[in-house]
Each structure stands twice: as C-alpha cells, then as structure tokens.
Design goal:
By secondary structure, the protein is mainly α. Among the domains are: 84 residues, 434 Repressor (Amino-terminal Domain) (Orthogonal Bundle), CATH 1.10.260.40; 61 residues; 27 residues. 52% of the residues lie in helices and 2% in strands. The protein is built from eight helices and two strands. It has a two-stranded antiparallel ribbon. About 8% of the residues have low confidence.
Length: 248
C-alpha cells in the first residue's frame, strides 16, 4: 500500500531498522526475500528499505523470523519483530480477512502442482520402461529367429536327402496336343473280297460298331446320393434307394 505524507517519518524509521538488522544478519535483499517466503522476482524488501511501502504485521513477523534464523545474535524472532513493529508505529496495513483463505489456496495450488509433476514424471518413466521392454522383446525374437535359421541350416547340412528334396523339380511335360484332324474315329470296315465283287459305283456294306469299345455320348452322368451313397443317374431328382433328394 502506498504511504502518505503523514506516514513517511514512521516508514523512514522502519526502513532504517530493517536495513540495520539485514546487514547485521549478513543477508542480501534477495536472500532475505527467499528466507521470508517472498517471490524472488519481487522487489518488496527494496521498497521497504526505501520507505516506499507500508507492510502488514504478518509480513513484519515473517521478516523478523528470517533475520533471527540467519543471525541468532539479534535475538529471538519475537524480539526482532517487536523492534520492527515499534519502529513502524501506527502505519502498518490492516490484515486482510481473506489472507488465511488465500494462503490455503496457494498452498493447495502448490501441492497440486507438485502432485501433477510427480504423476507426469511417473508416466514418462512408465513409457520409457515400456519402450525398453519392447526393445528387449524384439531383440529376443530376433535371436530366436536366428537360432531357428541356424538349426534349420544344420539340419539340412546333416540330412543326406535334403539336397535331393530341395532340388527344384522340373515341370512335367504336357502330353502333345491332338488336332481334330488327327483324332481317330471309328470307320466302317470293308471286306476286300466283297469290295472287289461289288460293281463300280456301289457302296460297300458296313458292320455295326462294337458297344464294348465305344460308349454313348449322350449317356447321363452318374453321381452318388449324399444320403445312402448309391450310384444313380445325375438327372434324377429323387434317389430310387432312399427316396430323398440326392443333392441334399
């Protein structure tokens, strides 16, 4: 809080007493601010020693505790705080009624921040551990694969039939294609004697084909019934043995 003209004599006395105690304790302004729990970036102590700011009683008590801890020769914290408050006089700033709540929220925020940092660090450690385990598993799989390959190579080297078995097989020769012109069909046999006796221009007598050598081209396909395994003609819708559909 900014001081007024009436507050200036009291603030000058307080600033001189604070500076004397700080020098006697051998602390710098930054060290005193850190010991009192103030922000290191704030110039709060410098403003107090320049009589440019009115402190609260709680802040004076915190500064006195830091000075007494750094220099026990100054006396106890209560004694140093009493000297500073006497030098300050009646110009101290009234305490904020919400200060305890604000301090509680600050401590809670610091605690939650620390917990969050710990959780993030644990997550990073777990991720690093998972990556390490995955790398180990891949290395083990690679070694196992190399061992299997070496065992297979040694097995092939010991097996007398491995070379013959693994030799590439030449493709089988396909049967020669037959053209329609070269296909042999049954031709009626003629008797030389009968052909000689026939008159010119007359056709030679033909003999019927042998049914044992030739089959009918239009004979229906024969299949087995899926129910009773009887051999029946493929065009039947019902099996004559079991009376059921042979395809179901």
């Amino acid at each position: 809080m900014r001081p007024t003209a009436a507050d200036q004599p009291y603030l000058d006395c307080f600033a001189a007493e604070l500076q004397r105690a700080r020098v006697a304790a051998g602390l710098s302004r930054l060290a005193l601010a850190r010991a009192a729990g103030l922000s290191a970036k704030a110039d709060y102590v410098w403003r107090l020693e320049r009589a440019q700011r009115r402190p609260r009683r709680s802040m004076v008590v915190r500064l006195a505790g830091a000075l007494a801890a750094a220099a026990p020769a100054l006396g106890s914290a209560d004694a140093v705080a009493e000297q500073l408050l006497v030098a300050l006089g009646p110009v101290e700033v009234p305490e904020n009624p919400l200060a305890p709540r604000t301090e509680y929220l600050r401590r809670r925020e610091r605690l939650l921040g620390a917990l969050e940092r710990d959780v993030r660090q644990q997550e990073r450690d777990l991720q690093a551990r998972e990556l390490e385990l995955r790398a180990r598993e891949e290395a083990v799989e690679a070694r196992e694969e190399a061992v299997r390959a070496e065992e297979h190579r040694q097995f092939l080297a010991r097996s007398p039939w491995a070379e013959a078995t693994l030799r590439p097989v030449s493709p089988a020769k396909a049967p020669p294609a037959t053209s329609p012109a070269s296909t042999t069909f049954w031709t009626p046999a003629t008797s030389t004697t009968a052909a000689e006796e026939l008159e010119p221009g007359a056709s030679a007598p033909t003999s019927p084909p042998d049914p044992s050598r030739h089959t009918r081209a239009d004979a229906p396909e024969r299949v087995r019934c899926r129910n009773c395994r009887a051999l029946i003609e493929g065009d039947r819708r019902y099996c004559p043995q079991c009376g059921r559909n042979p395809r179901l």
